[in-house]
């Protein structure tokens, strides 16, 4: 069943919702690392389809002032490189034991009918501890972490 997008002549063909499946994931890396258990896979029905990628997540920063960054890769590469930069977002600079929300959206044009895996990655610019799935008191699991993939008919 497809859903028409009002006035656009396009339809949503399928939806895949991935969510973070771990209790928590921690890193002190200042380079991007994949968040284990936070990905989603979709197989487009047409090479003209677009994939609307929507990430909503949060992380706890348990060190002094730090900045967390998040990105989504498609089959190991950033689909936004070469067009609009990168498919990533930042949660800004914050103090110790704060939880910060992050979200990003990107309309991907993969030109493929093969399975596509979208993987969430994170890093902390200062190399301080950053934890997905934990609150400021160390409770796990915590927060809402979703990766939504919508296949939209091409035009």
Task: Characterize the structure shown.
- This protein is mainly β and 155 residues long.
- Helices cover 0% and strands 53% of the residues.
- The chain has no helices and 11 strands.
- A hairpin with a 6-residue loop joins strand 1 (3-4) and strand 2 (11-19).
- The protein is elongated, with a radius of gyration of 16 Å.
Helix content: under 10%
Radius of gyration: 16 Å
Sheet with the most strands, sense and barrel status: 7 strands, antiparallel
CATH architecture: Sandwich
Globally, the shape reads elongated
Instruction: Identify the CATH class.
Output: Mainly Beta
Unreliable stretches (pLDDT < 50, length at least 5) are none
H/E series: EEEEEEEEEEE
Main structural class = mainly beta
Distance between the termini: 18 Å
- Mean model confidence by pLDDT: 85
Annotation field: number of helices: 0
Total strands: the figure is 11
CATH topology heading:
Jelly Rolls
Strand content: over 45%
Q: What is the number of domains?
A: 1
Q: Which terms would index this structure?
A:
about 160 residues, mainly beta, Jelly Rolls, seven-stranded antiparallel beta sheet, four-stranded antiparallel beta sheet, about 55% strand
């Amino acid at each position: 069943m497809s859903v028409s997008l009002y006035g656009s002549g396009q339809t949503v063909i399928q939806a895949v919702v991935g969510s973070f499946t771990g209790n928590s994931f921690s890193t002190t890396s200042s380079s991007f690392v994949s968040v284990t258990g936070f990905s989603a896979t979709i197989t487009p029905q047409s090479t003209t389809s677009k994939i609307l990628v929507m990430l909503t997540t949060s992380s706890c920063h348990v060190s002094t002032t730090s900045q967390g960054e998040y990105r989504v890769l498609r089959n190991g590469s950033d689909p936004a490189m070469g067009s609009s930069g990168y498919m990533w977002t930042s949660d800004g600079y914050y103090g110790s034991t704060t939880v910060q929300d992050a979200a990003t959206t990107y309309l991907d044009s993969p030109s493929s009918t093969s399975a596509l895996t979208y993987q969430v990655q994170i890093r902390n610019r200062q190399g301080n501890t950053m934890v997905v799935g934990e609150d400021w008191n160390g409770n796990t699991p915590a927060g809402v972490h979703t990766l939504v993939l919508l296949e939209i008919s091409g035009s």
